[in-house]
Amino acid sequence: MKPDLLVGLFAGFAHPLMGLDHMLAMFAVGIWAAQLGGRALWAVPATFVGSMALGGLLGFAGLHPPLMEPMIAASVLALGLLIAFAVKRKAPGVALIAVFALFHGIAHAIGLPHQDSATGYAFGFLAATILLHVAGVGLGVALRSRARLAGAPLVLAGGWLVLQALAG
Questions:
Q1: Is 168:62 a contact under the CB 8 Å cutoff?
Q2: pLDDT digit string (tens) for 80-138?
Q3: Mean pLDDT in the chain?
Q4: What is the C-alpha to C-alpha distance for residues 60 and 125, in angstroms, rounded to an integer?
Q5: Domain-wise residue ranges, the chain
Q6: pLDDT per residue over 8-23, tens digit each?
Q7: pTM
Q8: Distance between CA atoms of 20 and 91, rounded to whole angstroms?
């Protein structure tokens, strides 16, 4: 593996882990997927990862939409609400997740350090995202019917993050 590809891989892997908004949202996707159960256990996180990859391509191409940070913060709030209210309507929730994932992907791509490989960086942030989803699914499965309890702290954190993003 080329050194710049490896450096990009590690930088990309670290990026989602360094932002509370990214970490909480990706973790929450897994919890909600566990609440839904069945095929949603893998389909919901896969939708997020696929949409985030598309957002990454858009970000690498130079797209920088307005209100990107508030949208990322809002994803934590929205996912917290899906979990807290144990929303079982997959289609609207998954569509919402796909839109939020686009913003997450754009933000990750914009964070690419200039000296790093974009390919390695993208694989890194996708790998970290998958691991955060798996951790969320694990927690959701372990909590079972009490997974709703994870929604309240996510809603509070999401509200705080939205206020911070709008203020800054």
A1: no
A2: 999 999 999 889 999 999 999 999 999 999 988 877 789 999 999 999 999 999 999 99
A3: 94
A4: 13
A5: 3-167
A6: 899 999 999 999 999 9
A7: 0.94
A8: 27
Query: What integer pLDDT is reported at residue 6 of this predicted model?
Result: 87
Query: Is the CB of residue 161 less than 8 Å from the CB of residue 21?
Result: yes
Whole-angstrom distance, CA of residue 26 vs CA of residue 129 = 6
Scanning the chain, the segments in alpha helix (DSSP H) are: 3-17, 20-36, 40-60, 68-84, 90-110, 118-143, 151-167
67, 75 contact by CB (below 8 A): no
HSE of 164, CA atoms in CB hemisphere, 13 A: 14
pLDDT of residue 1: 60
The letter for the amino acid at 5 is: L
The amino acid at residue 151 is G
Question: Phi and psi dihedrals of 39, rounded to 5?
Answer: -65, -25
Token output for 148: 């709703």
- Which of these, 106, 121, 125, 120, lies nearest to 18 by C-alpha position? 125
Give the CA radius of gyration of the chain: 15
105: left (phi over 0), alpha (psi -120 to 50) or beta: alpha
pLDDT tens-place string over residues 37-96 = 999 999 999 999 999 999 999 999 999 999 999 999 999 999 999 999 999 988 999 999
